[in-house]
Design a protein that fits this description.
The chain is α/β, with parallel strands linked by helices and 322 residues long. It has 13 helices and twelve strands. The chain folds into three domains: 113 residues, 4-hydroxy-3-methylbut-2-enyl diphosphate reductase, catalytic domain (Cobalt-precorrin-4 Transmethylase, domain 1, 3-Layer(aba) Sandwich), CATH 3.40.1010.20; 84 residues, Rossmann fold (3-Layer(aba) Sandwich), CATH 3.40.50; 86 residues, Cobalt-precorrin-4 Transmethylase, domain 1. The chain is 42% helix and 18% strand. The strands form three sheets. The protein has a five-stranded parallel β-sheet, with helices on both faces. It has a four-stranded parallel β-sheet with strand order 3-2-4-5, with helices on both faces. Helix 9 runs parallel beside helix 10.
Length: 322
Amino acid sequence: MSESVANDMRAQKTVLLAAPRGFCAGVDRAIQIVEKSIDAYGAPVYVRHEIVHNRHVVERLEGLGAIFVEELDECPDDRPVVFSAHGVPKSVPAAAKARDMNFLDATCPLVSKVHVEAERHAKAGHHILLIGHEGHPEVVGTMGQLPEGHITLIETEDDARHFQPSDPENLALVTQTTLSVDDTAEIIEVLKERFPTIALPYKEDICYATTNRQQAVKAIAERCDLLMVIGSKTSSNSKRLVEVGDKAGADSAMLISDARSIDWDRIDAASVIGLSAGASAPEYLMDGVIAALKSRYEITVEEVEVTKEKVIFRLPRQLLSA
């Protein structure tokens, strides 16, 4: 049988690529900080917590000479240490300074903005409500900007309905940057209804990249028999993309780590397949998924772009001078 005849017999699939997708400016900056730290100071460079929530990224950086640890006390005094993009409690850089360590802060500037907001609200005498997920590194970092008791975590609408403040007239709100825009809006509406004077963020705390990726998924979801989001199970923004796609009308939605985790039975049953990637997933993983699909089916690829991203975050001065 000729190759052209064999191709004609293969199932036809349409692949819708959501755009924007994949790396955001904060993730790109954090990865560059680790790479350039290794270039400037030599290996090893220690990184407190996964620099971003993606094992492919972490393993590549390990190959370059990064050592990932969970706590600062696992790092020697004489080697540089990088703090992850999710941010850290104030106690961490304070401990690094006390040990006279060379540390670089890769916290996403949009997360740092939330930290500044929280401090500003606290100085104004507000008790702060943080919408987020307990235990997520970004939430741990944000709550660690202020002494214990200054911030209350709100995870659900139920939490928002039952929270009882000591002073209802002096409340302020901040949010984790990687949440679902829609789910956060519902929680905020409950809080605004209960506490009309609550101080809201000057601008939305949910980052531009999270918003853009969710809008792109919404733009393709209703056309999808199956939506696949490339990202780690520990990645909040990737998991939110699956939820957004499911709610926006995709017949089925799932998270995959790379081409090796594709469920081919579900692909066989789908005619239109949507693809997106979380903000910590490198584009080569998307290339690998498309290549895997092309190896089995006749694929027509259509990119659906809702906006262009031009955001760039500067590297720390100490790296530029180094």
